[in-house]
Amino acid sequence: MTDRGIQAGVLLPGMPHLLADKPATSWAALADSARTVGDQLRALEPDVVLLLSTQWFTVLGHQFQCDPNPRGAHTDENWYAYDYGHLSYDLRFDVEFTERWAARVDADGMQARRTRYQGFPIDTGTIVTSTLLDPQRTLRWAQVSCNLYADADTLAQVGRAGAEAARDAGVRAAVVVVSGLSSGLIQQWIEPDQDRIAEPAHDRWNERILQMLTAGDTDKVLAVREDYARQAQADSQFRAFAFLAGTGVAAAPAQLHSYGPLWGTGAAVLSWNLPAPA
Fold first, then answer.
1. Residues 6 or more apart in contact with residue 172 via CB below 8 angstroms
2. How confident is the model at residue 253 (pLDDT cuts 50, 70, 90)?
3. pLDDT at position 61, please?
4. Tell me: the pLDDT tens digits for 126-158?
5. What is the C-alpha end-to-end distance of the chain, expressed in Å?
6. What pTM was computed for the model?
7. String of DSSP letters for the chain
């Protein structure tokens, strides 16, 4: 493997429960796995980390974050009554690389939109992910939105454009996607120890997808993605995985670090090609 371009990948959930003061067992396990993966990711010493969160969704074009240092406080619109519903953030974005990526998206016939204004609403998934993976804020990110109306092939093309931009720039890069698996939220207030996957059928589908991912069967996952979305309410139709696959990093078998419920949804921490823990 060349030491330039996309070197490694991560898929993890972005629900704020991972930051709870008194988490469920599964929440704590997922958070611990995310922190371990963060240690491995930082050990890779990437120049830039490409980022897509299903919680930053847009409807017109593919939006790119061009503020070098968004910072502030965020109250989650769903979980504001809990300690984990109030988050702070202080992020570092590589604007020069982001412009390269956006230009490549434009050149490929898609619409890239550059975003830079004070007070831009950073999504919960991005904040949770950066907190767990990069607590000391040493990583530099390049983020694109998840367009609600883009099909999986288009998001794969956006990911491919990011990988090509990294190779052309001669940078060492990684890619992180923030996505759940099944998204069937339990439709009532529960205590953490009451959490479970909402539907047994969702759990079976999640397990099936995870088996394919850990076997390196990327094409099979993409082939059943639409069925998975229909049968298990997959988060954003699991299009975030298509984006990840578009970068080329998901051709290898994934390592599954943790799987469990997050308020009824299915969540997993997976990685591709990360260095072994020190």
1. 3, 4, 5, 7, 44, 45, 46, 47
2. very high
3. 93
4. 999 999 999 999 999 999 999 999 999 999 999
5. 21
6. 0.97
7. --SSEEEEEEEE---GGGG-SS--HHHHHHHHHHHHHHHHHHHH--SEEEEEEEEEEESSSEEEE--S--EEEEE-TTTTTSGGGEEEEE--B-HHHHHHHHHHHHHTTPPEEEE--TT----HHHHHHHHHH-TT----EEEEEEETT--HHHHHHHHHHHHHHHHHHT-EEEEEEE--SB----SS---GGG---S-HHHHHHHHHHHHHHHTT-HHHHHHHHHHHHHHH-BGGGGHHHHHHHHTTGGGSPPEEEEEEEETTEEEEEEEESPPPP-
Nearest to 143 by CA among 74, 71, 54: 54
Look-up of token digits 């539907």: 199
Residues found in the chain:
278
Instruction: Report residue 228 as tokens.
Output: 């998975």
Residue 91's region, left for phi above 0, alpha for psi from -120 to 50, else beta, is: beta
Q: For 36-47, what is each residue's pLDDT tens digit?
A: 999 999 999 999
- Which two three-digit tokens encode residue 49? 């980390």
Question: Average of pLDDT values for 20-44?
Answer: 98
